[in-house]
Write a structure and sequence with these properties.
By secondary structure, this protein is α/β, with parallel strands linked by helices. The chain is built from eleven helices and ten strands. The strands form two sheets. Strands 1-2-10-7-8-9 form a six-stranded mixed sheet. Strand 8, helix 8 and strand 9 form a beta-alpha-beta unit. The longest helix is centred in the last third of the chain and has 15 residues.
Length: 345
């Protein structure tokens, strides 16, 4: 009898996500465009990579012991990935989550057995109610716990240096000219960029930031300007602090996108390409549109964008006409993004 061809557990499916050529949504753009579709990870986001890698390294170093608790600050995706890894490896999981995270994400975390603390989004990073401070407090109060701290953990970018970067280089046969990806903790963009630039220093790396975030100005001035900070809706993009996981020297430039345009672009990608993308994927595609309008690409450009997660996590937000209307985002320009439901009686 031949050996059954099966994976030992869900974690063996992490990584090696496909690179997919974009066609309709970029039909009028200069150059060729390819999406690294991270929703093909088993936890449906790029955060699977860092959750598995950081926890594995903690085990190797003896920091994590059987029966321990893993604590993290998250906008949702990292938390889901950590909860998934914790199930397989037998750890408890406690997550401090921003109230800006979609209800879909929060419900998913609970469904994966995590204990969830929802913290107010629009408070300063050093406010005791912020999800940063709540996670730190829970770590101090919970015996036998470790705090992943993805914003200030060098293993965050190292995970992408060892996986995402080499995958993109191999999938493009070294023909990549531009990498465009969103920056939150900065792990994805920093680790991927470092690997790509080691192979070819001419690869241009462009980070996508949100209005209301401090990252773009910090990259340009190396100064944190708190006047830049104000509430915005995109999850997992931008920051009101400077994460040490971000290597700003690996990033050539930043471009900012709006909440509204990013939401519409996510819906457009889903309708035009058949790839059901999340809010941050819409942001990176909106950035590509703006960069094309600025003449950043030409016919020889091979542009890779990273779509970090799946649209199913935003059903109560950008894929809800009610939510879009409440934000003032729905108007006559968005007719192609919606479809009426016909009820047969």
């Amino acid at each position: 009898m031949e050996k059954i061809n099966a994976y030992n557990n869900i974690l063996e499916l992490i990584g090696k996500t496909p690179l997919v050529k974009l066609n309709n949504v970029v039909a009028e753009f200069e150059g060729s465009y390819f999406a690294k579709v991270e929703a093909f990870n088993p936890g449906h986001s790029s955060k699977d990579r860092i959750a598995a890698y950081i926890i594995d390294q903690a085990e190797r170093k003896g920091i994590l012991q059987p029966g321990n608790t893993i604590i993290e600050t998250t906008s949702g995706n990292t938390g889901f990935s950590i909860a998934m890894v914790s199930i397989i490896k037998g750890y408890d999981c406690i997550l401090a989550v921003s109230s800006k995270s979609s209800r879909d994400k929060i419900d998913m975390l609970r469904s994966m057995g995590a204990k969830v603390y929802v913290c107010p989004a629009h408070v300063s990073a050093d406010d005791p109610r912020s999800y940063y401070q709540v996670a730190k407090r829970l770590h101090e109060e919970t015996q036998g716990s470790i705090y992943i701290n993805q914003y200030f953990n060098e293993l965050n970018s190292e995970a992408h240096y060892k996986t995402t970067g080499p995958e993109i280089w191999s999938q493009t046969n070294g023909e990549i000219t531009h990498l465009v990806t969103c920056s939150g903790t900065g792990g994805t963009i920093s680790g991927t960029a470092r690997y790509l630039k080691e192979q070819n220093p001419n690869v241009k790396v462009i980070g996508v930031d949100a209005y209301g975030s401090v990252l773009k100005k910090y990259h340009e001035t190396r100064e944190l300007d708190t006047n830049e900070i104000y509430p915005y809706r995109i999850e997992g993009l931008g920051k009101n602090l400077i994460p040490s996981a971000t290597d700003f020297d690996q990033i050539d430039e930043f471009i900012k996108v709006t909440d509204e345009e990013s939401a519409h672009m996510a819906r457009r990608v889903s309708k035009k390409e058949g790839i059901f993308v999340g809010y941050t994927s819409g942001a990176v595609m909106q950035a590509v549109k703006q960069l094309n309008e600025l003449g950043k690409f030409d016919k020889n450009s091979n542009v890779v964008v990273i779509f970090p997660d799946h649209g199913s996590r935003y059903m109560s937000k950008i894929y809800s006409d009610e939510w879009m209307n409440d934000q003032g985002f729905l108007d006559n320009t968005s007719v192609e993004e919606t479809q009426e439901i016909q009820f047969i009686k």
